[in-house]
Amino acid sequence: MQRLSTLDVPARDRLAYLHDFVARHVAGLRFRPEDADSFAFNLSAYFLDGRTTVGTACYSAVFGERPKDLLAADGRQDYLLTIHTSDYEVAMEGKSPLIIKAGDITLVNEGSAMAFALPATLLKVVSLEEARLAALAPRVRMRALHHISASAAGASLLTGYADLLRAAAPDGEAGRRLASSHLYDLAALVIQGGSADTAEQVRPSLGAARLELVKAEMLRQLTDPELSVAAIARRQGITPRYIQRLFEQEGLTFSEFLRDARLDLARKSLDMPGAATVSAIAFDAGFNDLSHFNRVFRQRFGATPTEIKAAALRRCQ
Question: Which residues form the HTH araC/xylS-type domain (predicted)?
C-alpha cells in the first residue's frame, strides 16, 4: 500500500507531490485547489496486478483536468472507475458538464481530455487496463465516459467488493491475481448492463465477491447472539439458500463459519492480560450457551477456555 498526505510534505511542495503520486499510481491529472492555503489531501493506492490499482483519495475542494498536453506526454488509454461521497461535476472535451450524484459510478477513458470540479469529498478509485476490460465488456469502447447509477444492476456488488479490497488487501501474488480477476468480471457485468447472459459468464466471480461481502457482514455483526443467515440475507438482498450454497462451495456451512469466527474472537480475548471471566467472554463473542461454548472451544483448540486463560495469566507473572 502506497500513501501520501499533505502532512507528509512541505506546503510549497504539495501540488508537485500530489501530481507525482497520482501519475505514478493512478492517472495523469493536473490539480488546482480552490483554496491553496488550506488545500489538503490524503491518498492511498494498492496494486493488484499489471495496471490494476485500487485506492482512495480524500480532497478538500479542488479543480482537476486531464489536458491535451498530458495526453500527448503519457499516452495513457486505461479506464478510471470512480465513486464519490459528494455530488461533483465532470466535463469531457467539447461537451457540457455532467453532474454526478454521490454514490454513482463513473468510468472515464484516460485517452480523452476532461475536467472536473470536486467539493470536499472522499473518492474511491479503481484503475483498469483498457484492453483487458474491453475483452470482457466490448461496450466500454462505445464512449469515453460511462455514468452508472448506484442502483444499476451489479453496481453495489462491484463497489462493495472494491471496498473490501481497500480495507483488506489480499496476501500474495495468487490472491491479488484472483481478486483482480473478480474485479474485472464485476466491472464488465455493470458495463454490459447486468444482463442474464453476462451474469452467467461471470458467475464464479459473482459468487466469490458475494461470499466475501457476506463474510464481512457477519464479522461486523459477530457479537450479536441473534445473528442468522436470514438476517444476513436480508441485508445483502439475496436469499438464505443462496448464501448456504456459496458456503457449501467452500466446503463449510454458514453456521460453521460463524462458530469458528466467534471462537477465534473468544480465544483472542482469553489470551489478553486481565481478561474477563470465561462466561463473560463467551457471551460477548455471541455464544448464548456456556456448555456449548466450552465443548466447541475444546474441540477447536485442544484445550478448555479456562486452561487458555490460566496460561495467559502465567505468561504475565
Answer: 212-311
